[in-house]
Amino acid sequence: MKKKTGLVFFPAFDYAISPTHPEREERLLYTQDQVFEEGLLDFDNIKEFKPGVATAEDIQRVHFCVPGIDEIVHASHLIAVGGCITAADKVMTKEVDNAFALVRPCGHHSFRVVHGSRGFCTLNMEAIMVEYIRHKYGVKKIAIIDTDCHHGDGSQDIFWHDPNTLFISMHQDGRTLYPGSGFADELGGPNAFGTTINLPMPPDTCEEGFLYVLDEIVMPILDEFKPDLIINSAGQDNHYSDPITNMKFTAHGYAVLNQRLAPDLAVLEGGYSIETALPYINTGIILAMAGMDFSHIKEPDYDAESQKQPANITAYLEKLKDATFHHWNNRHTLREQVYPEQEFHKRSMDVYYDTDGIRETINETVRSCPDCGGTVVIDSRCDDTHNHILAVQIPRYACVPCRNYGEEQYASATIGHYTQIFLQDKDKNRYLSK
């Protein structure tokens, strides 16, 4: 059945980490050429929209930018995020059934606190889009399925304490690839335990394996969670020709995955095989979202023999299924073991910004709460930039005790010990700093 599908393109001609960097404008230019060559925009049910521009208010619903937005965010980041927001608006107002934001630079490695760029990312596009949708349209339960080859560690960080966001990441095992995280026992914070699900797959996983993980793990959990909206972080670097990863997915496989997942919104993330993969993958995804035939989508160098999956990988994925459902089905009991009953829980992280070559130390405290996601207090220090900030996040749907705790923490913090102090109040759409 055909669907009305919206497309938003933004290749960001004026933004590149370096002229030969894999994350550059050609990633989208070849795709645009393929879309025009296939005549996709001639179909009545496929429509292109121009991207908008994200505002500071949009960004501050999610991020604490240090020292500020102007210092670390490029105009292209604002338009890329604006393209995602445009796609969301078109879906939420029912102008289209679904939409695909083909924009760059990518964003799923961006954490809640941002001191610079890491993993080619500065702003987390999907997270900003999620909070925009919740603020404007009141959607509560949202699922993000990240199919990028690299673990979406930034998205995981942002939604770690959010019980209303199911974050599932399908990626190459972090023991073999950046950012070295995304293991099956990373399950979320004390107030959202179980809503973070990581599915690390071995190098050389083929189409058979990806679709097994989708059908046997992702779809049953989605059916139980019952989200109001599904978002695909549509990274395409699982392709067999990608120069910086080690997987064996195909353009046809991506189209089948998208057809079965049926996301309301898709956002382009990684994928660096600029000529031999991206044009075919994106065309297949667009046709799948539009409910059209994609059986002819095939790479010129496709070799069926190379797509035969080794038995040991199949066995590994079967064990991954068992482990995932053990965690999912016993998440309430496991939560009590991982997070003993106490008022506050803490976690610490060291974050490396590989693009900028700086390091951040995070010490985070969350209030344990049965009624909401819990207020989060973040002490973030980056000695390389001489910034030391305190960030307080009051969650959406905050209960009164969590709101009071967050406001008290912000009011009592003083400049001197910190270079900046922030309050992010999701319910009141309020962002303060001192």
Can you give a write-up of this model?
The chain is of the alpha/beta class and 434 residues long. The chain has two domains: 5-319, Histone deacetylase domain (Arginase, Chain A); 344-433, no CATH class. Helices cover 33% and strands 22% of the residues. It is built from twelve helices and 16 strands. The chain has helices at residues 26-38, 56-60, 69-72, 75-92, 125-137, 153-159, 207-225, 251-261, 278-289, 311-329, 331-338, 400-412, and strands at residues 5-10, 46-49, 64-65, 98-103, 113-114, 142-146, 165-172, 196-201, 229-234, 265-268, 344-353, 358-367, 376-382, 387-394, 420-425, 430-433. The strands form three sheets. An eight-stranded parallel sheet has the order 2-1-4-10-9-6-7-8, with helices on both faces. Strands 11-12-13-14-15-16 form a six-stranded mixed sheet, with helices on one face. α8 (251-261) links the parallel β9 (229-234) and β10. The longest helix is centred in the middle third of the chain and has 19 residues, at 207-225. The chain starts with a strand and ends with a strand. The model has no long low-confidence stretch (mean pLDDT 95).
